[in-house]
Amino acid sequence: MFTVNSKFKFDCRQDLSCFTRCCREINIYLTPYDVLRMKNNLQISSEEFLQKYTVVVLAANTGLPVVLLKMDRQTGRCPFVTEKGCQIYADRPWSCRMYPLNQEEDGSYSLVTDHTHCFGLAENREWKVGEWLDDQGITAYNEVEMLFGKIGAHLKSSGQKIQNRNIQEMYFMACYNLDKFKRFLLESSFLKVFDVDRETVEKIKTSDLELLKFGFQWVLFGVADNKTFKIRDEVLEAKRKQLSKKA
Ligand code: SF4
Ligand code: SF4
Predict the structure, then answer these.
(1) Cβ(219)–Cβ(170) under 8 Å?
(2) Number of domain units in the chain
(3) CA angle 155, 177, 207 (to 5 degrees)
(4) pLDDT at 175 (0 to 100)
(5) Lowest mean pLDDT segment, chosen from 63-77, 95-109, 227-241
(6) How many helices, marked H, and strands, marked E, lie in the chain?
(7) Crossing angle for the helix pair 46-53 and 178-187, nearest 10 degrees?
């Protein structure tokens, strides 16, 4: 078990005979922020990205969709690996940045492999875990991952397993299929029903990251009923009138 102050030796270089070995026959779970960055790096829509490059399964414990990077069926290789390394290096997923480390549930760190598989672990360059995380740009992920983690944490603490297909689909759209989620927000009656301030609407129109944060809040509103979203007064009033007419 490592802390941020623990030291380990590691140097990944193109001249090592294991170069790109870690980019095949491996399960890579994609976070919503991974999908956002990868689809933007490739300049394609979230729908196209998810369809071409991912496999979606339902998590046994939460019932929520989990997204994995689809490896080539024949070679087991990642679709983005080239002889020179990662084609989308600047926006590679969180778990590729972490490698050869992994973060445990209790927040500690561990090595996912050893020097017999990853020859970089037999090299002499010394890192503190914290230095490695900074070097790999992990810090930029922390805020977004923390917000995303609230959804799983809520389900865990309440012991809820989502089995309603509409909620599973809404979760998937709001967290992973951002382009579709944006259309849903801006082109459906959503903004007529929910009271969302203009500044927020502008942000979700212009920033995928703000759209994603909004998506997390929307999901939390759905699963935790946390009152984040307010229904417009006129909508409530119309509903009241409708009900009193029926009565
Ligand atoms: S196996 Fe280790 S040293 Fe080899 S390319 Fe992958 S991370 Fe680098
Ligand atoms: S995304 Fe890049 S770093 Fe990650 S497995 Fe694929 S090629 Fe390797």
Answers:
(1) yes
(2) 1
(3) 100
(4) 97
(5) 227-241
(6) 11, 9
(7) 150
Domain limits at 114?
A: 7-139
Q: Which two tokens stand for residue 188?
A: 């459906």
**219, part of any domain:** no
Of 23, 26, 41, 95, best ligand 2 pocket probe by most atoms within 8 Å of the beta carbon: 23
Gap between the Cα atoms of 117 and 22, Å rounded: 9
Tell me the residue ranges of DSSP E strands in 80-153: 81-82, 85-86, 101-103, 109-111, 126-128
Beta carbon of 71 within 6 Å of any ligand 2 atom: no
User: Mutation test of ligand 2: which of 24, 83, 88 has the most ligand atoms closer than 8 Å to its C-beta?
Assistant: 88
Q: How confident is the model at residue 228 (pLDDT cuts 50, 70, 90)?
A: confident
In-domain check, residue 11: yes
Is the predicted pLDDT of residue 123 greater than 80, yes or no?
yes
In a domain, 227, yes or no: no
